[in-house]
Specification:
This protein is α/β, with parallel strands linked by helices. The chain folds into 2 domains: 2-66; 94-232, Glutaredoxin (3-Layer(aba) Sandwich), CATH 3.40.30. Helix content is 40%, strand content 17%. The protein has helices at residues 2-41, 51-60, 105-109, 125-142, 164-173, 223-232, and strands at 94-97, 102-104, 114-121, 147-155, 180-182, 201-206, 211-216. A 7-stranded mixed sheet has the order 2-1-5-4-3-6-7.
Length: 233
C-alpha cells in the first residue's frame, strides 16, 4: 500500500504547490495594481500634493500659489514739510475726535483726491460763518468727486482749549456730517505763522499731501472754483 499512498501524497502536494503559487501571483498583481492606483488617486504623494489636490483647487476656482497678498498703504510724508504753497502738509499730526479718541490726520485724508482743512475757534466770527455753509456748499456737492472736509477747533467760545463737549456742540449746531476734530494743545498752530494770525485758516491739500491752496479769515470767493479745478485734474 505504500506505493499508492506515495502517489496520492505526491499528487496532493503538487496541487497545494500550484494553488500557493497562483495565490502568490494574484497577491502580487493586486499589490502592483494598488501601488499604481495610489500614485494617481491619493490625496497626497510624497510631496503632499497629488492630483486630487489639483482637482480640489480647480473645483473651488482659486490658485493658492498665486494669491496676491500685497497691501496698498498710505503714508504721511516725512520730508518737505512746510506751511506754504507747494510744501507737504504734516498729516502725521494726532489730535482728537469728538469722543476725544486720538485721530491721525492722514487716516481721514488717505483715499481722497483733495482735502479741505478748516482750522478755527469758537470765538471766531468768520469761523462760524464758514461752519454754516461748510457741508452744504463744499462737502455735499464734492464728496463723491473725491473731496474730504475736516474741521479742526483749537479753542471754544471762551478761549479755552477745545474739548469733547465743544466739539460735539459745534458738529451738532451746524449739522456737520464731515469730520470735526478738537485740537486742545493747538498742534496746528504752525499753519498760522505766515497769514497774519487771522482765523480760520483754510487749506486745500492734494492726494500727495501737497498744500495747493491757503487762505485765512472770511470764506474766500475763489474757494469753490479752486476745488473744482483741483478735482478736475
Amino acid at each position: 500500500m505504500s506505493g499508492p499512498w506515495n502517489v496520492s501524497i505526491y499528487i496532493v502536494g503538487s496541487i497545494i504547490f500550484l494553488l500557493v503559487g497562483c495565490l502568490s501571483d494574484e497577491n502580487e498583481a493586486v499589490k502592483t495594481l494598488f501601488d499604481d492606483t495610489k500614485g494617481s488617486t491619493a490625496v497626497g504623494g510624497e510631496d503632499g500634493a497629488g492630483p486630487a489636490d489639483d482637482v480640489s483647487k480647480d473645483m473651488i476656482g482659486i490658485d493658492l500659489g498665486n494669491e496676491d497678498t500685497s497691501v496698498s498703504v498710505c503714508e504721511a510724508p516725512s520730508e518737505g514739510l512746510g506751511t506754504s504753497l507747494g510744501a507737504k502738509f504734516d498729516a502725521s499730526i494726532t489730535i482728537k475726535n469728538c469722543d476725544f479718541d486720538n485721530v491721525v490726520l492722514k487716516d481721514l485724508m488717505c483715499g481722497h483726491k483733495l482735502t479741505l482743512i478748516d482750522i478755527g475757534a469758537g470765538w471766531c466770527g468768520p469761523c462760524i460763518d464758514q461752519a454754516r455753509i461748510l457741508d452744504e456748499e463744499f462737502y455735499e456737492p464734492f464728496k463723491d468727486k473725491g473731496l474730504q472736509v475736516i474741521s479742526i477747533l483749537f479753542e471754544n467760545a471762551s478761549g479755552q482749549p477745545a474739548n469733547s463737549d465743544f466739539c460735539e456742540f459745534w458738529r451738532d449746531e451746524f449739522k456737520l456730517t464731515s469730520p470735526v476734530l478738537a485740537d486742545p494743545t493747538f498742534k496746528t498752530k504752525t499753519y498760522f505763522t505766515d497769514v497774519q494770525s487771522s482765523t480760520p485758516v483754510i487749506l486745500l491739500v492734494d492726494e500727495n499731501f501737497t498744500i495747493v491752496y491757503k487762505r485765512s479769515g472770511e470764506t474766500p470767493s475763489d474757494l469753490k472754483s479752486t476745488i473744482e479745478q483741483q478735482l478736475a485734474k
